[in-house]
Every structure is written in structure tokens, then in C-alpha cells.
Amino acid sequence: MTVSQTNLAWATLLDVSPREHGRRRLHDRLAHALRTAIRDGRLPEGAVVPPSRALAEELGCSRWVVTEAYGQLVAEGYLCARVGSATRVSWSPDTDPPRSRARRAPERTPIRYDLAPGLPDLRAFPRRRWADAVRTVTGSAVHYDLGLPDPAGHAVLRTTVAQYLRRSRGAEAHAESVSVCAGVTDALVRTCRALRAEGFTDLAVEDPGWGRLREAAASARLRVHPVAVDHEGLRVDDLARTPARAVVVGAAHQFPTGTVLSPARRARLVRWAREVDGFVIEDDYDAEFRYDRHPVAVVQGMDPSRVFLLGSVSKTLSPALGLGWLVAPAAMAPVLRAANAVAAAPPVLDQLALATFIDRGWYDAYLRASRRRFRSRRDLLVRTLGAQVPEGRVAGTAAGLHILLHLPDGSDTQAAVHSATTAGLRLADIGDYRAEPSTKRALVLGYGNISDTDIPPAIALLGEALRSAVPRSRLDEGS
Ligand SMILES: Cc1ncc(COP(=O)(O)O)c(C=O)c1O
Q1: Are residues 170 and 301 in the same domain?
Q2: How many structural domains compose the chain?
Q3: 123: which DSSP letter?
Q4: E strand or H helix at 466
Q5: Pocket around ligand 1 at a 6 A CB cut-off
Q6: Is 369 in the same domain as 357?
Q7: Which residue's CA is the nearest one to ligand 1's atom 13?
Q8: Quick count: other Cβ atoms within 10 Å of Cβ 380?
Q9: Quick check: helix, strand or coil at residue 313?
Q10: Structural domain of 88
């Protein structure tokens, strides 16, 4: 049974007064009160406990008190916390004692600070306007819209996306060339299936790069060839030495290196596609967030007959919406139609809601506000790193929602990630995204989903985690 967090008076349910608990510290009292409520069944298994901030407000205590208490109960097996979803009661009086369960599968320390890349600011999701858009289209959709969806996506959203990409990304797009997908991953699977149907057997991907892109290509039975990325982006000369005639590229802000594909490489890439009679698949990842200059137009605009353009709202609004797009070269329309026919279309009302959200100017307004927020958060992160982690060198800051922190050769980044995670800080090692091993060491720090106030304590934890992970001599140089 799931108990909503709003139908319980938490302050009444959790009596944390010293009268009840003697002179224990407040977080111990709260942990005790929660434990008791779970044990006697007042908080049943599956019940959602309030977000730490909300409970702290209700109880009139600091958020730290609540996260400590939750962390304690997670460790004991009474609560279960997953990043991105609500914390729930995970035990009932009818099951094994939680301690024995905790021994069998020890729970991790709850994540207090999230610097893992890949998420936008989930707290800032424009709930009211999204709800307005959903309400509007639920009322206005004609009954025909509620029938079988068009596998390429609803014409209204395809038109809206084409206009958006033309005006904001310099793309060459029109409703017929756009397919609505469930995100970039889905768009890539469809593209790879279409390429396979055209006789393509090999696909090049960036190294380092996002592993799911490699998996998506492999799922369409394409052989994957990693190609190195340097400070100008994908090394097109290396690409030309592979048997691949198609390549996936993050031109606007490569993941995870954060490089922007240089003008020379963009031109060289398009030339390569023409020479091999192949295709560039442009993952327009992070493109909306460019801070120090105007956004760079998509490569697709340079030759729409040779470039597929893939994008989604996963990094701008939320990955939970599962909405994205794919703009395909005209010659690929027939094979893409076949690939679309066997893919699952995103729910039509969601598609129409996104169209309304964009058409009313709410998407642009939200992107403008997000860009301002992320720019100042990036500045804060870079400043704090400069002050607290002098042994690191920051890169990839021009755009996007993550930066790279280069560390001296010989640093044990895996150990750093492990000890940071143990201390409640989530972040990523660039090594996790490499297909080929490298001696270069770096951490990938995402700042989309961390609040500004959490950055200084998160970086203090990072500094701690690096203390034993970076070679001693380099630490002394930094100080
Ligand atoms: C490089 C890259 N491209 C695209 C995406 C977005 O994928 P999707 O739209 O399927 O959520 C991600 C998500 O983390 C990513 O890392």
C-alpha cells in the first residue's frame, strides 16, 4: 500500500520531543520516532516519507537532522532511498527483522549531494505550466487525436519541433523530416535500424562517450568502432581509418569531455560523410545551454542530406517526460518509416502538451531562466573547485550541465569516486565512459541537479575524497 505524504500529520506522527525521548540528539530522536512508527505499523511498507526539506520545515529543524535520521533508517533496512525517486518504508512488522536483511544486502550511504552528470534541475521543473499545457490539450484534443497514434509522431508536434529547430538551432527541418521519439536513445535505435536496413553494418562512436549510445547501436546489430576525442572534438582523421560510414557525434558539448566540435572539424566531418557516402548522426546534447557565446548552430544545417539530428527534452525539462525528436535526411524517409512503425510512440497527449508548451513561448522562457541559473551555478562550482581542489584542472565549461575535472596522472579516480560515494557524494569517473583505457585521469561533475547551497559542502567532501587518491607530490604542488 502506498500512503501519500500529504495525508499524514507528520509532526503528530513523529513526536520528537525530549519528553518522549530523553536527552538524545534530535536526529536520534527522529530516527527513533520513525523506527517506532514503522515497527508498530503506523507507517506501512511502501509508504512514502516526505522529502527531507519538507519534513524539516514541518518539524522546525534543519534538513541535516532529517537526512541523518533517514540515512540511519536506510542503513538499518527500514527505509529505501533511490536517487530520483521518493524515499519509502521498506519493511513491515510481518517480515524478517530489518537488521538481518541489512546484513544480507548492505544499503549504501544515502546520497546527500548529487554531482553525477545527466540531470537538469529537477526541483525547478515548470510544474504549473506543464500542468496547464496538459490540461489545455486534454480539453482541446479532437476525438480523432485519441485514436491510433501516427508512428512518426503527431503532426502538430512535428511542425512545432521543426519550427523550433529552425529558429533556435539553425537546423534545416520541416514537419515531414521530423519523427517524434521517446528521447535520444530511442531516436538512435530508430536511426540504427534504418541504417541497417540500408545495408550499413558499422557505426563509429566517440571515445569517451555515453555507453548507452554504444548499446543502442549494438542492439540494432551494428558493429561499434570507438574513435578518440581531443580538444577539438572527434578526430575525423581517425574516423576515416575505420570501416564505418556512419558516426554519432556530440557537436555542441561532447559528453563527457565537454569539448565543442571546432569549425574545422565540423567542415571535415561533413566532407567525410560525402566522401564515404555515409551519415553523421548529431546528438544535439546540452546544446541549449551555452554560456559564454551564442549557441553554435547544428552541423545538420551544413548538409541536411548527410546529417541526422537527434534531440530531446531530457536535459532541458526532465528525462521522465520521455520526449525527443529525430530529423532525418529525405533519402532515408522510407527506411525510417519502417523503423518508426515498430517503435513505440510517446503518449499523444504528452506530445500535444509539449507542442503547446513550446508554442506558447514557455519552453523558450524556461530555457532562458535555466541558462541564467546554470551559468551562475557553473561559476560558483568553478570558483569553489579553484579554492578547494587546486590540484584539479577544470575543462569543458563553455556549455552544458557538466564539467571535467582533470587530475594529475597516477590519481586513483575510482578510489576517489568510491570514497566520495561512501561519504554521500555522487559523481562520475571519466574512465567509466571509455571504450579504450587511457592514462588521463578526470572526474565528470554534473551541476544540473545540485542546489547552489549544496556546492560548497559537496566540494569539501570531494576535496576529502581526493586527499588519498591524488599522488602526494601533486598535492604539495597544489598547496
Ligand atoms: C550523450 C547523451 N546524449 C543524449 C542523452 C539523452 O538521452 P535521452 O534523450 O534518451 O534521455 C544523454 C543522457 O544522459 C546523454 O548522456
Answers
A1: yes
A2: 3
A3: G
A4: helix 455-467
A5: 118, 183-185, 210, 250, 255, 283, 285, 312, 314, 319, 324
A6: no
A7: 118
A8: 16
A9: coil
A10: 10-108
